[in-house]
Amino acid sequence: MNGSRNATRSGSRPPENGASPLGRYWRLIALSLGAAGVFAVLFYLWGRELFPGGAGRWGEAFPFVGAVALTLAVALFLSEWFGFAGREVRKVRLAARDFLFLCSLALLLFFAAKAVIDLIAEIPSLGRGVPTRVYAYLIPLPAFAMVVRVLINSETSILFTVAASVLSAAAAAGSWPALLFLLLSGTAGAARARRVPDRYRMLMAGVQTAPVCALAAAALEFSFHGGGGVLWAGVFGAVNGLLSGPIALAVMPVAESAFGYASDIRLMELSGTGHPLLSRLMMETPGTFHHSVVVGTLAEAGALATGANPVLCRVAALYHDIGKLGKAQYFSENQAGAVNVHDAMSPGLSRAVILSHVKEGVRMAEEYRLGDRITEIIAQHHGTSLLYCFLDKARPLIQDRKASEEMFRYPGPKPKSREAAIIMLADAAEAAVRSLDRPTPQEVDETVIGIVNRIYLDGQLNECDLMLRDLHAVGRAISQVLAAVAHARVDYPEAGKG
Ligand SMILES: [Fe+2]
Ligand SMILES: [Fe+2]
Question: Which residue of 76, 229, 419, 465 is most buried, as measured by CB atoms within 10 A?
């Protein structure tokens, strides 16, 4: 599908996810300034030492000169690395926020590496009999690689591991064993953080990483330096692995609130009906709540069939129509046989009310800090599709040129991710099948195929990387679940009538 080719490019992703662009820019500026302040302090502590060339005439006068040069070199390396990867690797789509986050993590790790080697070696009771080089096996790259995989994706975590390994090994006096250990331990950490829906799984990922790190450290130490520090290397490697889970758990909430990410752990927290928005949805708009739960089940099935994130699909679907709160009666799922209020309204007014639920949903998602991933899906769940239900009513106006068909389209943007596309398909399919009276499995199947085809031909999936085979798999998964739901709606005999 052309969508796969048109995947949004990293550097050029427009700020059109529906979230307020101004608020995002201010947050990015605040983050940049904060990061610059932290790094300035770190450079002041270690800059000249890391860049001895700066300790010449200029270095004596301004210790920061060496540090600034080092920062530029590191920033250049990272921007080239992530910039190139983001442009050319389909699944590495780095927005400015991701780039800033990865650079911050890599630089933090760079200085953490320096701190581990310099500071721990200074502790007298520890330093005795332990070669300084062995401290490199404590550099916490596995934890950082796990964080990147959980918050962004596996492809980006591999690229991050390579870039951060090179930088951290440079901080560890360019040692080959350190470089190889970092590459291996970072990959092992990221590989074990596949699906992490709770803290226990994160801790277990660290526990499973520990033996790999211990073995790698001991083997590398023995290969390059003989038997002297093998035991310490093994112990430090194991400690590094064991600590990776707790360190990742400590870093993630900070990254989530500072950069707007939503990990699966956070998503699971949001899926509880105790959340004020879901409670309101349940009490005030029960029809929309039921619709959202069914869409979540459908989207989760679609995600499992295509390798997309099922937790994100299910939780984002629960929130996708929160913008309908306060306007329940205008949406069919809440009317349940009551008078259709749109009968007494002009098509233009109906259009305005219906379209507004997307914008209102984005506003509420930002107010309740649901995270960028859910906010983006809310903004994209109708793409630029047509409001078919009011188009017929508006036909006379369109023929009189008092309105145009384009006015009856949602403002967009179109889905940018597989998860957003799956929710769009599930949402439309659920609404279409709900309107059928006692459908057979075949009717359900035909309706879902019709909806999928219509959305695809309308170009709504042009900007996401859902392949054609994924589209078939999603359609199949959705119609299977919908057929099961429709089949489960059996009529019970009325009480007393036998
Ligand atoms: Fe909607
Ligand atoms: Fe919906």
Answer: 419
